[in-house]
Amino acid sequence: MNWLDRLRESLARTRAQLTARLGEIVGAPPAEFFQQLEAALIEGDVGVATTQHILRQLSDRRDARDPAARLAVLREILLDILGAPAPLRLDPPPAAVLMLGVNGAGKTTTIGKLAHHLKTSGRTVLLAAADTFRAGAIDQLAIWAQRAECELVRHAPGADPAAVVYDAAQAVKARGIDVLIADTAGRLHTKTNLMEELKKINRVLTRELPGSPVERLLVLDATTGQNAIAQARVFTEAVGVTGIVLAKLDGSAKGGVVLAVRTALGLPVKFVGLGEGLDDLQPFDPPQFVDALLTA
Questions:
Q1: For FRET with 68, which of 53, 58, 116, 173 sits at 20 to 30 Å CA-CA?
Q2: Are the beta carbons of 107 and 90 closer than 8 angstroms?
Q3: Sign of CA dihedral 18, 24, 28, 32
Q4: Residue 52's closest CA among 67, 37, 64?
Q5: Element (H or E) spanning 272, and its range?
Q6: Parallel, antiparallel, or unpaired: how do β-strands 269-273 and 281-283 relate?
């Protein structure tokens, strides 16, 4: 299957729930239509705040009173929420991508897939194993570096994560590498310790790569739904997240979380992941996503 087919398949659960309900209510009187649409959106993990925003936008549109135009108007509103595609800022090189997220969100796997994506786009990539608190994380990243055919900077388990990032920054400058992608820890003994460590890594990157773009991508597990938003707020406050990668957007996830994340955080969704393969990460395309969500 091509990417669009796979996206449609991954959203099948949400689409079946939403389009089936829409098909039944699209011609209903306004009060019933809005009530049923509200239930369908919340069940699809769009979230209460985002659902209310959508309903307000619909009620303000005169053309939404026409049952024949309701789906088209809904599509416009969803696209307006998601905004324009937001590609990574990678120029001028060397660029850095700091990968953030709690353990289990799919962060290290996403790094490997992102490295592969960038390499197939013609970029050279170096990975930094800065999650030194888990030996397993270093070994896992080494496997992905081999799969994506990227260089890797690693220290011994327990080493200073900022020192790993420092050495990686020197390496990309010395070797003329386009993109540095740094893994980070997802959990320390306390949330405060974790955030202070991330701030330190961020300072090292901005100091050692002056004038270079630094993306701070937060990897969220789509299957956790609204809990992902609470996680995102903490990371955003600490290091200024620049974009979201929504991992595990497969049949077990409720696709509406993409809309909830965008509304709650005001951050662009830059990539979505649908599986475990090297090619299972793609730039987020809002029109493609909305069509896959609404088209039966």
A1: 53
A2: no
A3: negative
A4: 37
A5: strand 269-273
A6: antiparallel
Give the H or E element holding residue 128.
Answer: strand 125-129
For residue 270, which of 291, 245, 249, 248 has the smallest C-alpha distance?
245
Binding-site annotation: residue ranges for GTP? 101-108, 183-187
Query: What is the radius of gyration, based on Cα positions, of the chain?
Result: 20
pLDDT in tens, the chain (296 residues): 566 677 767 666 666 666 666 767 777 777 888 888 888 888 777 888 899 999 999 888 887 777 778 788 888 999 999 989 899 999 999 999 999 988 888 889 999 999 999 999 999 999 999 999 887 889 999 999 999 999 999 999 999 999 999 999 999 999 999 999 999 987 754 566 888 888 999 999 999 999 999 999 999 887 776 677 777 788 888 888 999 998 887 655 566 778 888 888 888 889 988 777 788 888 888 988 888 777 75
Domains along the sequence of the chain with CATH: 3-82 (1.20.120), 95-284 (3.40.50.300)
The Cα 128–Cα 138 span in angstroms is: 9
Point out the annotated binding site.
101-108, 183-187
Is the bond into 94 cis (omega within 30 degrees of 0)? Answer: yes
Asked if 135 contacts 108 with a C-beta cutoff of 8 angstroms, the reply is no
**Cβ proximity of 288 and 7 under 8 Å:** yes
Query: Locate tokens 């005169």: which residue?
Result: 62
